[in-house]
UniProtKB/TrEMBL annotation:
ATP binds at residues 152-156, 255, 311-315, 339-344. Gene3D superfamilies: ATP:guanido phosphotransferase, N-terminal domain, Glutamine synthetase/guanido kinase, catalytic domain. One of its GO terms (molecular function) is ATP binding. One of its GO terms (cellular component) is extracellular space. Residues 149-351 form the Phosphagen kinase C-terminal domain. Belongs to the ATP:guanido phosphotransferase family. Residues 35-122 form the Phosphagen kinase N-terminal domain. It comes from the Eukaryota. This is creatine kinase. It comes from Lates calcarifer. It is an enzyme of class 2 (transferase). Its EC number is 2.7.3.2. GO terms for biological process: phosphocreatine biosynthetic process.
Amino acid sequence: MWKVKSPVEFPMEMRYRPILESLVPPDPMSQFHLKRGSPDEEFPDLCRNSTWMGRILTPAMYRRQFNRCTHSGVIFDDVIRPGLEEPGDRSGPASVGCVAGDAQSYILFCDFFDRVIEAYHEHKITSQTPESDFNYDNLKGGDDLDRSYAVRCDVSVVRGVEDFCFPTHCSRGERRQLLMLARRALQRLEDEELPGRLLLLEELNQEQQRELNLSSPTSSQLRIGVARDWPDARAIWMSEDGSLVIWVNLDDHLRLVSTQEDANIAEAFKRICINLQKLEEYYRELRHPFIWKQQLGWVASSPADVGTGLRIRVHLKLQHLPKHKRLQDVLKRLRICMDRTGTENPLHCMS
């Protein structure tokens, strides 16, 4: 805010005050009349919170973020709500416990987000621009997994679209505009070389949902606002052979998932790279490029996906390893998560 001296020193101030005030950038928080206490009174109870948000947030940090608000209306309490709704437990891997309401959140609340990103990814944020290499020819290995153990794999990537709030904060109108953009981009993808079909979740009956293995939103998604107005403007695009699936307006604006039933990671990654680069070009031509921040890389709603937005999951048949007493220590050191996905002939998902 500009500091203007009193009218005693500047008699002409009263005359020019409307002009001066029009030049002062407005404080977004001044547009809200929230009935809140002081930062110390509003500070959440984090005693039993095992998320990265709960470990990092301090009263001093909370005070610094308390009166900040993005241009679209995201306040800091919106950011930390997921970790307060799902505090987690000490037995499993820690979740980030926070979510960005829009791309500006990463800038306005950088004091907090940078610490969470550094802790979760174990990577120091510097002034250097991170490199993102989606040239599949540079991938070494990934096509030689032992099929007696590896059953299938999937490679996924998320992207946020410029000029739109993220799912926890976007309006119905924004969500419908995102769906319209996705229709146009995916139509071009179909016309060029990858036939497929776009299915609106609101038009699917229960039988179709079962065939696609679709489930209702979780209670957590409902509480933090990801599933507002469900299933309005949510869609799934599937290639004819089922190897590529693109989710629209679920946890993120776009999520591409490439699946290989032979657990060939290299082939799944190649499919992601080719189609992601095409979609990136289409969205750029539509004047809504994917969100990129110089010091963070590709930006999505969750700090866990900042950087490349890439995840790899491999489904394995394991009989004896899950019983090993040192398995959890090994997984923690390698920063790998393992979940059981079946009861009979159990499969374990490594990601």
